[in-house]
Protein backbone atom coordinates (compact mmCIF):
# COMPACT_ATOMS: atom_id res chain seq x y z
CA UNK A 1 0.00 0.00 0.00
CA UNK A 2 2.85 2.41 0.75
CA UNK A 3 4.04 2.21 -2.84
CA UNK A 4 0.71 3.57 -4.12
CA UNK A 5 1.01 6.73 -2.06
CA UNK A 6 4.65 7.40 -2.82
CA UNK A 7 4.27 7.56 -6.61
CA UNK A 8 4.27 11.01 -8.13
CA UNK A 9 0.93 11.91 -9.70
CA UNK A 10 0.91 12.82 -13.35
CA UNK A 11 -0.23 16.34 -14.12
CA UNK A 12 -2.94 16.78 -16.73
CA UNK A 13 -2.76 19.79 -19.04
CA UNK A 14 -6.42 19.43 -20.04
CA UNK A 15 -7.72 20.42 -16.61
CA UNK A 16 -7.10 24.15 -16.90
CA UNK A 17 -10.20 26.38 -16.59
CA UNK A 18 -11.34 28.58 -19.45
CA UNK A 19 -10.93 32.34 -19.24
CA UNK A 20 -14.73 32.70 -19.34
CA UNK A 21 -15.08 30.53 -16.25
CA UNK A 22 -12.54 32.54 -14.29
CA UNK A 23 -14.14 35.80 -15.40
CA UNK A 24 -17.60 34.57 -14.37
CA UNK A 25 -16.42 33.51 -10.91
CA UNK A 26 -14.57 36.77 -10.28
CA UNK A 27 -17.53 38.88 -11.39
CA UNK A 28 -19.90 36.82 -9.25
CA UNK A 29 -17.72 37.17 -6.17
CA UNK A 30 -17.45 40.94 -6.70
CA UNK A 31 -21.21 41.36 -6.96
CA UNK A 32 -22.05 39.12 -3.99
CA UNK A 33 -22.48 40.75 -0.62
CA UNK A 34 -23.58 39.09 2.61
CA UNK A 35 -25.49 41.09 5.20
CA UNK A 36 -25.91 39.68 8.70
CA UNK A 37 -28.81 40.89 10.79
CA UNK A 38 -29.00 39.31 14.21
CA UNK A 39 -28.55 35.58 13.52
CA UNK A 40 -29.84 35.67 9.93
CA UNK A 41 -27.58 36.25 6.96
CA UNK A 42 -28.80 37.54 3.60
CA UNK A 43 -26.94 37.01 0.33
CA UNK A 44 -27.44 39.88 -2.11
CA UNK A 45 -26.28 39.76 -5.71
CA UNK A 46 -26.00 43.23 -7.26
CA UNK A 47 -26.10 43.02 -11.03
Topology:
Elements: H1 2-6, H2 19-31, E1 32-37, E2 40-45
Antiparallel strand pairs: 1-2
Overview of the molecule:
- The protein has 47 residues and is α+β, with helices and mostly antiparallel strands.
- The chain has a domain at 17-47.
- It is 38% helix and 26% strand.
- The chain has helices spanning 2-6, 19-31, and strands at 32-37, 40-45.
- A two-stranded antiparallel sheet has the order 1-2.
- The longest helix has 13 residues, at 19-31.
- The radius of gyration is 20 Å and the shape is elongated.
Query: Within the largest sheet, what's the order of strands?
Result: 1-2
- Span between N and C termini? 52 Å
Helix share, percent: 25-40%
How much strand content do the residues show? 25-35%
Low-confidence stretches: none
Q: Count of DSSP helices?
A: 2
